[in-house]
Amino acid sequence: PGFRVAGLALARLELGIQGYDSTRGRAFYAELERRARSLPGVESVSLAEIVPLGLARQRRGVEVEGYAAREGEEMEFGANTVGAGYFETMGIPLVRGRGFEPSDRGGTAEVAVVNETFARKFWPGENAIGRRFRTRKEGTLEVVGVARDGKYLSLTEEPQPHFYEPFAQAYEADMVLLVRTAGDPRSILPALAREARALDPELPLDVTTMSEHLGFALLPQRIGAAVLGLFGAVAALLAAFGLYGVMSYVVSQRTAEIGIRMALGARAMDVRLLVVRRALALTLAGLVLGLAGAVAATRVLAAFLVDVSPTDLTTLATVTALFMTVALLASWLPARRAAAVDPMRAIRGE
Questions:
Q1: Best mean pLDDT range from 60-74, 111-125, 234-248
Q2: Minimal CA–CA distance to 165: which of 97, 107, 86, 93?
Q3: What is the pLDDT of residues 252-275, one digit of tens each?
Q4: Is residue 204 over pLDDT 80?
Q5: What stretch of H or E contains 152?
Q6: How many CA atoms lie within 13 A of 18 on its CB side?
Q7: How far apart are CA 135 and CA 341, in angstroms?
Q8: What is the distance in angstroms between the CA of the first residue and the CA of the last residue of the chain?
Q9: Nearest-5° Cα angle at 115, 111 to 121
């Protein structure tokens, strides 16, 4: 996703519906950050208006100095208002320049951090630090840092321009407190809620972890995986019954042959292996075709996968082992039936 998920706790706060103005709001957030930093196990604390890969969205129109937009060109991009230390707390690397600092406050030069795609779009092959652009809300911003690209709306999106503004210069009433912890972030959630309630008992509050927050971002993949997994299980069951039927038919057609083999000294285990080998050979041929089809479909599959490649060897090996096991089980009963054939009765019947 472009940031470190583990060890991150979130506290969503809505000061706007409580009637906080910017002065009270800034004081509240400053005190809450101070209290959160004093909690055991806390490594860093910051604020963000938008947590990536959630329901909230923020887009702002920009005008870049020295860039003439083409007719009809989209000039609204994703934006986020964040506190000092945001990039360190989120674990977002800065590839150039710096992040926001406490000195970036009202009355000083307005600044911004852009991501790599934003910098490449407007200043290709050039240093973005010191460049300027305007927003319809804040005015002219000077770029002081370039952050690594990340995922903002979905885990499967293509890289897109994005920029950040400092909370101290662009106040927002409703923010999310970000707390980076050394251990399990769930253990600190009660303390975070307690500190926020101590400042305002009536404040709407929601505490969670980044891992739980990302459950929404993974919902489409999880639903798709569940549905396709169900279809796959049904297909595997049908394949098992089909293979069982085929092998039962083969055994019935070769009863005399099996009887002759046993009359000539073949052991029951030899007969079982004869049937099972036939089934596994059929399955192996199907697996070769199926794996070739899966590899051929990698470009389509890649758009739906998260944290696994379309040619993941572990997955392919697991599927291969699964179907070989299904084939073994489906052919074992016909093999046992074949091994139980009475040689003399089989020969007389022929």
A1: 111-125
A2: 86
A3: 777 777 777 777 777 878 878 887
A4: yes
A5: none
A6: 17
A7: 85
A8: 69
A9: 105
